[in-house]
Amino acid sequence: MSFTIHIPTRFNGPPKSANGGVAAGLAAQAIDGPAEVSLRAPPPLDTDMQVVARGDDYECWHDQQLVMTLRPAAPLSPVPPAPSFDAARAGRSHFPPLKTHAFPGCFVCGPDRAHDGLCIFAGRPDGFDGVTDIWTPQADLGDAEGRVRPEILWAALDCPGAFAVGFQNRPMVLARMSTQLHMRPSVGEELVVAGWHQFDDGRKHGASTAIFTPDGQLVAQSEQLWIELRQPAA
């Protein structure tokens, strides 16, 4: 089995690179159920990538560059309880200021993308041990039946994990993301997005994220590994 994925410029993360969640979610359509995607190189924009089977696993290539590896994952561990809707609504008022954002043009969390991005600004409100925000998917992010496309759910799960582990103080990139989708909500529905810090190991940082309905029903979840960017030499 092989197929092609193509990520338009709109869906960038860092400059000139696709958002990791979008890229992983598009490639993971090859896998039925929970999937683990490891990013080996920045996914390119506006060009074809080939996803090819390697036994039960998959690889995503751009020309001679391995971009991602994919494999089925076990069901993910239970997530912490959802924040209250009021706490989630308060999250964005605690989102770090624009001047500290390493990638302000990111499709998911970029303050510069108010016109066409997801505008998920997950901050840490008082009384909640994580970051959170309210997200309402736009109509153009749905499929023919009006349900949010899988790669968009992957994207919404992506960046809150970085802010849960302190992205604003130590810029980092996504290295691995395991995701399980439990349902496909409709566009236009208000959803709660949350992320929690899991561990630090040198430049490696772990996070978990989740999307909930306003009444706390789990929509999707992920477990993530982030790699802190090296500081330039003095």
Fold blueprint:
Layout: E1 2-6, H1 20-27, E2 35-39, E3 48-54, E4 57-62, E5 65-72, H2 85-91, E6 131-135, H3 150-164, E7 172-181, E8 191-201, E9 204-212, E10 218-228
Antiparallel strand pairs: 1-3, 2-5, 2-7, 3-4, 4-5, 6-8, 7-10, 8-9, 9-10
Helix pairs in contact: 1-3
Provide the succession of SSEs: EHEEEEHEHEEEE
How would you sum up the major sheet?
Answer: 10 strands, antiparallel
Strand content: 25-35%
Give a count of the beta strands, DSSP E runs of length 2 or more. Answer: 10
Q: For the record, give the distance between the C-alpha atoms at the N and C termini, rounded to a whole number.
A: 48 Å
CA-based gyration radius: 16 Å
Number of helical regions = 3
Mean pLDDT, all residues: 95
Shape: globular
Task: List low-confidence stretches.
Answer: none
Share of residues in helices: 10-25%
Q: Structural class from helices and strands?
A: mainly beta
Q: Main sheet: which strands, in order across?
A: 1-3-4-5-2-7-10-9-8-6
How would you describe this structure to a colleague?
There is one protein chain. The chain is mainly beta and 234 residues long. The protein is built from three helices and ten strands, in the order βαββββαβαββββ. Strands 1-3-4-5-2-7-10-9-8-6 form a ten-stranded antiparallel β-sheet. The chain is globular and about 45 Å long. The model has no long low-confidence stretch (mean pLDDT 95).
What descriptive keywords fit this protein?
234 residues; mainly beta; 10-stranded antiparallel beta sheet
At a glance:
With about 230 residues, this protein is mainly β. It is built from three helices and ten strands; from the N terminus they run E-H-E-E-E-E-H-E-H-E-E-E-E.
